[in-house]
Amino acid sequence: MKIDIKPYNLEAGLYLIPTPIGNLMDITLRSLYVLENMDYLACEDTRTTQSLLKQYDIKPPKLFAYYDHNEAEKTDYIIDLIKLGNKVGLVSEAGTPLVSDPGFRIVKSAIENNIKIETLPGATALIPALQLSGFAVHNFTFLGFPPVKKNRKKFLELIVNSSETTIVYESPFKIMKFLEDIQPLIEPDRQVSITREISKLHEETIRGTTTELIAKFKKKKNLKGEFVLVIQGKL
User: Fold this and answer.
1) pTM for this entry
2) For each successive 10 residues of the chain (235 residues), what is the average pLDDT?
3) Could you confirm whether domain 13-119 is CATH 3.40.50.1820?
4) Residues of CATH 3.40.1010.10 domain(s) within the chain?
């Protein structure tokens, strides 16, 4: 397979670069080109990024950590780098920056400083899970990860009362609690689709009511992977 790729000039600015969420083939040629031509990469996890660059034989630019707990401190640093004429890429550990991942702060600051921002399309977990659900896709709401304590009830009620399809992320350690918390609030026959390990070897989608899903998950041990829950709109 021969692909004719015409490189383009990259200016100083902020580049939002999606990376694979599972299968390493789920990266665009443009993303690889941009990764190869950055002066700096701000990484949610530098080890994961180094591994990806090595996989594609890309000589790593200067890497530094940019995650939830140092966003405020590193934002000004990134803005200063760009003002000095550098190209800075932002990469999550996996998937698209800002989508339940760090990045909001730096994008907001870049806009305020009239800095060029280029975002690349690419891998994300919520759209494949929505497609696999079989629910209405013309209107949907993405809510990210549920709060653990504060405002949790309000969050669940928002899902329960929505007429739109709703998408939520959850960890393997909290999936059962989420289902058990929402079960008494939701209609007994309302359907939920849960997809995990998207784009990986053990990708799996399980569908059913909250009662059926709780019963199924009780039989499973050592749950792994990020879970994407797609909840049917109010019946």
Assistant:
1) 0.90
2) 76 96 92 95 95 93 92 93 97 92 93 97 93 94 94 96 96 95 96 95 94 93 89 93
3) no
4) 13-119
